[in-house]
Design a protein that fits this description.
The structure is a homodimer of 331-residue chains. With 331 residues, chain A is α/β, with parallel strands linked by helices. Chain A contains 13 helices and 14 strands. In chain A, helix 6 packs parallel to helix 9.
Chain lengths: 331, 331
C-alpha cells in the first residue's frame, strides 16, 4: 500500500510519518490493515525522516502539477493532505493562499480521481471554517461562514472533496482540526501560533508575546491526539461516514487565561510571568472569528477523541520535547 | 454606469436586460440611481436585444479569460452573473460544470477585483446548494451540504464571492434563487425543467412528461418576481448586508400535485390530463435533494419578495407569453 503525506516535513506531517513508520500498516479499502510499501513525504522543505527505506521524499510545491503527478503515483491508496499556507499568511497574501490551499488541493483531487482507485483522501481542515455570527456552541450542522481567507479556502476544499467523494472519484474525509498546541519549534505565521508559544517559550525561560486577551476562548487539541484522529479518520469505512464527509473534531474548550493558569500551576509564577500581553488587532480579529466551544456528537460516535485536560497537554509536551526548564517542579 | 449581464441571451438574462432598458437607471455605489451608459450582454448564444443603442453584445464563453476581459471593462460598476451550466448537465459532465460554473465565476471575480472599483457583483445562486439530511424547514443559517455538482459549484462561488467582498475586492451579493417557473420556450437540461414544462406544454395542448411524483415539494418563484429580486439585490447598501453576502430568497412552497391542481382549476381537466407521469430516477434524485420549504426572515427584512400564489403565476405567464390555449376559461 502506497501512502502520501503532503506537508510531510511539517510538524504534524513528521509526527504522522513517524506513527506510520512505527505501525508499518494502514487500513485498506477492504477495512483490513495492509502493509505500507511506500511512504511519500512531499513538502517545500526537505522532510526529516528520509533514512527509513519505506520513505520516499519529494521536495517541491504541490501548486506545481508536475510535483503532484510525481507525488501521487497511480497506485496510491491513501493521501493525508496536511500541506497548507497558514492563516496569517493566507490573509496577508490572498493569491498565495488560493494557489497553495485551494488550487493545490484541486490538483491532488484530480490526480487521485484519475488513478481510478478511489483512494482514501484525508483532508486536514480547520475550525477556521467558522466565523461571523456564531451560536455560543457550534453544532455538527452549523453553517460554515468563514471570516478569513484561510477558512474560506478550507471550506472550498471540503466542498470539492465532498463532491469528488459523492461522484466516487475519491473516498474523502475532511477533519476540522482545533488549534493544535503545544507545537514544538519556532513560531509560524498562523494566527494561532501564540497558543503554543505562550507555553513553549516560558517553559525554557524565554519571554513570549500573547497577542490576544485572557478571555479568548480556544478549541484546542494536542499533537498526539491530532495524529491519532488523522489515522482514525483514514481508517473509517465510507459506509459509516455516509454522505457527509466533513467532521467537526472534538477538542478542549479553554480560555487563554486558563491555559496560562495551567502553565503557572505546572511550572510556577516565575514561568507564567514571562508572558507579555500585547494585543495585535490583526491576530485578535482572526482568532476571535473562530469558535471556542463545540458540541461534537458525530465525531464521538465515529470514535474520534479529545484531550482530557490542558495540564496533561503540557505534561505530554514536556515529556516528548525533553524540556528541562529551570523552574519545572520535581514531580 | 456600465452594467454587464452574463447569460445575457438566456431567459432570465433577457428579461433582466429588458427591465434595465426600460428603467435606464441602476443604483450606484452612492445609493442613488444612475444612468446606464452601457449594458453588455455576454453569452455563448447571440443575445436577443441587440437593437438598443445602450446594448453591447458579446458572443462567447466566459470560461475564456479573454472574453471575460472584454466583457468586464475596467469601469464596470455592476455585474449580474447569471450564466451557468444547468444542474442536469453539470451532473452529467463534471468537468464542464467546474469550468463553466466555478472557474468562470472566479475569472469574473478576479477581473472585477483588478478594476479597483469594488463593483457590485450579483451572483444568481440556487436552492440546489442545500441537500442531504435537511430540516423540514430550511432556515437562514442552515448549512449548505449540496448533493449535486451544480449545487457544490454554486456554494464554491458563494464562498469565493463572500471572501472577495470581505477583502473589499468586489461588493458581492449571492441570491439563492428558488426554481424559476413558468419559463417560456423549450425544456432545458436543468433537473427542474419539468416544473415549467408541466404547465407550459399542456396550456398549448401539448403533452408534457413529469419525471417526479405528485408529492414532490418545490420552492418556486415566478420570472417576474425573480427579476424584481435580482434588481433589488443589486440596489442594497453593503452596510445593510453586513458580513453575510449570501441570502436565501423567499418563495412559494408547493407540491407538484398542487401545481397541477392549479393548472386544472385554471384551464380544465382536459389540459392537466396532458401530463404523463413517468418517474426518472436521475431527476428524482437531484430534485428530491433540494428543500421544498424555507423560512426566510432575513430576505423579508431586506425587502425581497415572494409570489402570492401559484394561480397568479399561471395567469401572469399566460398574459405575458400571449398563450391562447383552446381550453382556457373565458375570464
Amino acid at each position: 500500500m502506497k501512502v502520501v503525506i503532503t506537508g510531510g516535513a511539517g510538524f504534524l506531517g513528521t509526527a504522522l510519518a513517524q506513527a506510520l513508520l512505527e505501525s508499518r500498516t494502514l487500513r485498506g479499502s477492504d477495512g483490513r490493515p495492509q502493509q505500507i510499501s511506500q511512504l511519500t513525504l512531499v513538502d517545500i522543505a526537505p522532510p526529516r525522516l528520509a533514512s527509513d527505506p519505506l520513505v520516499r521524499t519529494l521536495v517541491g510545491s504541490i501548486t506545481d502539477a508536475k510535483m503532484v503527478e510525481q507525488a501521487l503515483e497511480p497506485d496510491t491508496d491513501a493521501i493525508f493532505h496536511l500541506a497548507a499556507v497558514v492563516s496569517g499568511q493566507a490573509e496577508a497574501d490572498f493569491d498565495l493562499g488560493m494557489r497553495a490551499n485551494f488550487d493545490a488541493t484541486r490538483l491532488l483531487l484530480e490526480r487521485a480521481r484519475h488513478s481510478g482507485r478511489n483512494p482514501r483522501f484525508v483532508l486536514a481542515s480547520s475550525v477556521a471554517v467558522f466565523g461571523g455570527a456564531l451560536p455560543a456552541v457550534v453544532e455538527d450542522d452549523t453553517a460554515a461562514t468563514p471570516q478569513s481567507s484561510y477558512g474560506t479556502q478550507k471550506v472550498l476544499c471540503e466542498l470539492l472533496m465532498s463532491d469528488y467523494s459523492r461522484k466516487g472519484f475519491v473516498d474523502g474525509r475532511a477533519l476540522r482540526m482545533p488549534t493544535i498546541c503545544i507545537r514544538p519549534g519556532a513560531p509560524n505565521k498562523a494566527a494561532s501560533s501564540f497558543a503554543s508559544g505562550i507555553i513553549r517559550e516560558p517553559l525554557v525561560g524565554q519571554t513570549a508575546v500573547c497577542p490576544v486577551s485572557r478571555d479568548t476562548l480556544m478549541w484546542v487539541m494536542s499533537p498526539k491526539c491530532a495524529i491519532r484522529n488523522l489515522l482514525h479518520g483514514q481508517s473509517l469505512d465510507p459506509q459509516v461516514l455516509g454522505k457527509v464527509r466533513v467532521i467537526n473534531m472534538p477538542g478542549l474548550s479553554i480560555s487563554v487565561g486558563e491555559m496560562v493558569e495551567a502553565l503557572e500551576r505546572f511550572a510556577g509564577a516565575s514561568t507564567s510571568s514571562l508572558i507579555r500581553w500585547e494585543p495585535d488587532p490583526a491576530v485578535v480579529r482572526i482568532v476571535n472569528s473562530w469558535p471556542g466551544r463545540f458540541d461534537t456528537p458525530r465525531a464521538s460516535k465515529l470514535g474520534f477523541k479529545a484531550d482530557a485536560n490542558f495540564a496533561d497537554i503540557i505534561r505530554a509536551y514536556v515529556d516528548e520535547a525533553g524540556v528541562h526548564a529551570t523552574s519545572l517542579p520535581t514531580v
